[in-house]
Hints:
The chain is built from 16 helices and 2 strands. By secondary structure, the protein is mostly helical. The protein has a two-stranded parallel sheet with strand order 1-2. Helix 6 packs antiparallel against helix 8 (144-164) and helix 8 runs antiparallel to helix 9 (169-192). The two termini are 40 Å apart.
Amino acid sequence: MESATYQVMILCGIALWIVISSKLNVTRRLRSITQPWVTRYVVSGTRTILRIQKFQSRYLDALFSGLSCVVSVPFYTAFLPLLFWTGHCKLARQMTLLMAFCDYMGNTIKDVVSAPRPSSPPVRRVTATKDEAENAMEYGLPSSHTLNTVCLAGYLVHYILDYTGANHALTEIECIALACLVIGVIGFARMYLGMHSLIDIVGGLLLGLGFLALWLSVSEYLDAFIVSGENVISFWAVLCFLFLFAYPTPEIPTPSFEFHTAFNGVALGIVIGVHQTYHLFHHEAVPRIFSPQLTASMLAGRLVVGIPTILAVKFCSKALAKWALPVLAITFGIPVTSTSYLPWLNSMAAEKKQNETKQPGYLRKVFILSKQTSLNVDTGIRLLQYAGLAWSVVDLVPSLFAQIGL
Length: 406
């Protein structure tokens, strides 16, 4: 009962913050203070980037572009299922939730400050992949690659030292030095590629250290709650919903909100699946890779079965959400639009607005109190799509493994 009270207080606090920050224009006020200050450092940092880019070559372009892909959000999205399927379940769920937390906080700060990236030209910006081209459309401060690398490399070092029980000072120093080297190379790479200024890298570093310290102080409590807490699924579902509305509005639309929505859905799916099947597939005694119970050939079989399955679930989740969400919105009288998934909704919403004569329903009365004139249904589709994908990674696919002896 006491736990439920705290959960209600947390959710009500977030909802209250959404209302207050909207009424007081907190985002614009913060932006008016921080944006000019950060922009000055971005402009003055151009000289530093140009000095670095004097040593440009196609080999460095390929090297640093590859490194940036290895620590990108799409890479982690593909890599994290492997951790679950190799038996390192606690590490996998902690890194997934930490990634979602970093992605939300980093993108929130980006869109609050709305500071530009280095101007190109004179800076040469290298976008070797589609993901990098999308990243270039985001604002600059902080560097997400730097922030995410600090948090995930730091947590990985913490997990390895704790898991192996290494108490030797030399081992700790070697692990920390390796993590620092990776972080430094990634920060340098982002400047070499023309994606960030020095202020963005420093901001990502400092924020990453702060977020990592916070995560290490609460991770065990959070893990215990997800595994065996009360009202876990309902609480997390409402929390994800509120986070969508708590996200700030940027000066100019960017892909940052889409990235957050996807990982918000991943976190929701992971929490639902782990909470429901912890004692079956995710407890500490599950077989780990290279043990007699989980050989390399069995892992290969898991990949052959698991990857097509999660892709099929992602496709089906998207198709189901594209059908169900517009029906629910129309039923409850909530005005919706679509940026890409369902363009026919836009003309339908415009026609309905012109011809509407009936009294709006209760839910719509509540909705129109906000400054938005309609909800973008793409957000809900993306959330459910990635929630379904993540749920299949930790629930459906392990069930298939158990049925076929993998």
